[in-house]
Amino acid sequence: MKQENIIRLTSEQLQNMQGKTDWARVDAMTDEEIEQNALDDPDNLPLSEEMLKKLRPVNPQERLLRRQQQLSNHSPD
Protein backbone atom coordinates (compact mmCIF):
# COMPACT_ATOMS: atom_id res chain seq x y z
CA MET A 1 0.00 0.00 0.00
CA LYS A 2 1.33 3.41 -0.90
CA GLN A 3 1.65 5.90 1.94
CA GLU A 4 0.40 8.80 -0.19
CA ASN A 5 -3.06 7.20 -0.34
CA ILE A 6 -3.46 7.14 3.44
CA ILE A 7 -5.32 10.09 4.91
CA ARG A 8 -5.31 10.47 8.67
CA LEU A 9 -7.99 12.56 10.35
CA THR A 10 -8.73 13.32 13.97
CA SER A 11 -12.16 12.50 15.38
CA GLU A 12 -12.84 16.25 15.51
CA GLN A 13 -12.02 16.59 11.79
CA LEU A 14 -14.33 13.67 11.01
CA GLN A 15 -17.17 15.22 12.98
CA ASN A 16 -16.75 18.51 11.12
CA MET A 17 -16.71 16.93 7.65
CA GLN A 18 -19.74 17.43 5.50
CA GLY A 19 -21.06 14.39 3.70
CA LYS A 20 -21.63 14.28 -0.05
CA THR A 21 -25.02 12.56 0.14
CA ASP A 22 -27.88 14.37 -1.57
CA TRP A 23 -30.50 13.58 1.08
CA ALA A 24 -33.25 15.49 -0.78
CA ARG A 25 -32.73 13.18 -3.76
CA VAL A 26 -32.73 10.11 -1.52
CA ASP A 27 -35.91 11.21 0.25
CA ALA A 28 -37.62 11.76 -3.13
CA MET A 29 -36.89 8.20 -4.34
CA THR A 30 -39.63 5.60 -4.33
CA ASP A 31 -39.13 2.17 -2.74
CA GLU A 32 -39.05 0.68 -6.24
CA GLU A 33 -36.25 3.05 -7.32
CA ILE A 34 -34.25 2.25 -4.19
CA GLU A 35 -34.64 -1.49 -4.76
CA GLN A 36 -33.67 -1.19 -8.44
CA ASN A 37 -30.59 0.88 -7.57
CA ALA A 38 -29.55 -1.78 -5.06
CA LEU A 39 -30.03 -4.55 -7.65
CA ASP A 40 -28.02 -2.58 -10.23
CA ASP A 41 -25.03 -2.21 -7.87
CA PRO A 42 -22.47 -4.90 -8.81
CA ASP A 43 -20.69 -4.44 -5.46
CA ASN A 44 -23.86 -5.19 -3.51
CA LEU A 45 -25.47 -8.18 -5.15
CA PRO A 46 -28.45 -9.66 -3.27
CA LEU A 47 -28.04 -12.97 -1.44
CA SER A 48 -29.49 -16.02 -3.14
CA GLU A 49 -32.10 -18.17 -1.41
CA GLU A 50 -29.42 -20.83 -0.93
CA MET A 51 -27.10 -18.33 0.75
CA LEU A 52 -29.91 -17.02 2.96
CA LYS A 53 -30.67 -20.55 4.18
CA LYS A 54 -27.06 -20.91 5.39
CA LEU A 55 -27.17 -17.77 7.54
CA ARG A 56 -27.42 -18.15 11.28
CA PRO A 57 -27.43 -15.71 14.19
CA VAL A 58 -24.05 -14.95 15.71
CA ASN A 59 -23.74 -15.58 19.42
CA PRO A 60 -21.59 -12.74 20.84
CA GLN A 61 -20.12 -15.09 23.47
CA GLU A 62 -19.10 -17.57 20.75
CA ARG A 63 -17.44 -14.78 18.77
CA LEU A 64 -15.48 -13.66 21.84
CA LEU A 65 -14.45 -17.23 22.70
CA ARG A 66 -13.28 -17.90 19.14
CA ARG A 67 -11.17 -14.73 19.21
CA GLN A 68 -9.65 -15.60 22.56
CA GLN A 69 -8.73 -19.05 21.27
CA GLN A 70 -7.47 -17.55 18.00
CA LEU A 71 -9.97 -19.59 15.99
CA SER A 72 -11.35 -16.56 14.16
CA ASN A 73 -9.78 -14.94 11.12
CA HIS A 74 -11.71 -11.73 11.80
CA SER A 75 -10.10 -8.72 13.38
CA PRO A 76 -11.56 -7.35 16.63
CA ASP A 77 -14.51 -4.96 16.31
How would you describe this structure to a colleague?
This protein has 77 residues and is mainly α. It is built from 5 helices and no strands. The two termini are 22 Å apart. The mean pLDDT is 85.
Short description:
The protein is mostly helical. Helices cover 48% and strands 0% of the residues. It has five helices and no strands.
How would you describe this structure in keywords?
mainly alpha
What low-confidence regions span 5 or more consecutive residues with pLDDT below 50? none
The total count of helices amounts to 5
User: What is the H/E string?
Assistant: HHHHH
The backbone outline, from C-alpha atoms, is: flat
Average pLDDT, rounded to a whole number, is 85
Q: β content, as a range?
A: under 5%
Give the N-terminus to C-terminus distance in angstroms. 22 Å
Structural class of the helices, strands and pairings? mainly alpha
Largest β-sheet summary: none
> Care to count the β-strands?
0
- Tell me the Rg in angstroms: 19 Å
Helical content stands at: 40-55%
SSE blueprint and pairings:
Elements: H1 11-16, H2 23-28, H3 31-40, H4 49-54, H5 60-68
